[in-house]
Amino acid sequence: MSIAPITEVQKKQLIEAISYDDDQMQKKIQQVKEWMKKQPHLPQLPDEMADKIIFTNLLGTKMSTERTKHKLDTFYAMRHQFPEIFLNIDPTLKDVRESVDKIRHFPLSEMTHDGNIVIILSFNPDKSRKCTMKDIKALCKRAVALNYIWLQQGELCRGQYILFDMSGLCASHLTELPWFYMRNFAALSQEALPLRIKGIFVVNSPTFFDIILNVFKPILKEKMKKRIQIFHNYGDLYKYIPQRILPADYGGDGPTLEESSRAWQKTIESIRESIIEEGKRMTDESKRPSDSVNDCGQIFGIDGTF
């Protein structure tokens, strides 16, 4: 599985939005790469990998080298906060495989008309496949793996839409799932991941959705809060995400949620060794310079504890 590259029309829109320039991009990539090589606490990456990761981060920061440096540092430092994910990220583990049908999580194979990737996160409404705390941590591993795949593609895109389908959530999940764990993972991801979130779309929201939202609101930036939209019918969703590219479950022409979730899991497992190696790349805090600060704990205000 893969995501179709950006079209010429979408590329033109992106260039206008962030003042993108090929020559300027290459210069900035070299600047950040040289900076990374001089940071004793950062993992040293192969040149091609570094180019792609820096490229994607520059896109997400509208070509800001300083914000890109901060994101890269946070990207590798945050892994100390979640060792149970990054140091045990093997996609063939039983808990990871079992989570695939319980929580469907994958990108659509095409971008939207405005050049955004669409990430699906859908809780299965089948009560026999009710998700648990173990499935949530497995989901985090899958999310990291999917992000790794996107970084390795090094493709142009404007940002991402996240589509939350909450049809599989029930009231008992309020006490059974690790909401604050998810909040902390989301908080660090918001700071560390390269792609800008252009919209958070919620469908099939339960009556207790406000309770869930209030857990996450403290870590969301004001701009992000304004990008949350709740759709009560799929017709309104089609204004942002073309019906044609959506899964059949939402009236689209694409594969079902289950089919896509399983197909992407196969893709992740096909590069198992690379993903395991990626999980080992993190900062060496013993070598961090005195003028460099690891603020991962402060991002969610509890110094890295749970």
Characterization of the model:
It is a single chain. By secondary structure, the chain is of the alpha/beta class. It has a single domain, classed as 3-Layer(aba) Sandwich (Phosphatidylinositol Transfer Protein Sec14p). The protein has 15 helices and five strands. It has helices at residues 8-18, 22-37, 47-60, 65-77, 83-86, 94-99, 133-153, 173-176, 179-192, 209-216, 222-225, 234-237, 257-270, 272-280, 296-299; strands at residues 103-107, 116-123, 159-165, 197-203, 228-231. A five-stranded mixed beta sheet has the order 1-2-3-4-5. Helix 2 (22-37) crosses helix 3, helix 3 packs across helix 4 and helix 4 packs antiparallel against helix 9 (179-192). The longest helix has 21 residues, at 133-153. The radius of gyration is 19 Å and the shape is globular. The two termini are 35 Å apart.
Chain-wise SSE layout:
Blueprint: H1 8-18, H2 22-37, H3 47-60, H4 65-77, H5 83-86, H6 94-99, E1 103-107, E2 116-123, H7 133-153, E3 159-165, H8 173-176, H9 179-192, E4 197-203, H10 209-216, H11 222-225, E5 228-231, H12 234-237, H13 257-270, H14 272-280, H15 296-299
Helix pairs in contact: 2-3, 3-4, 4-9
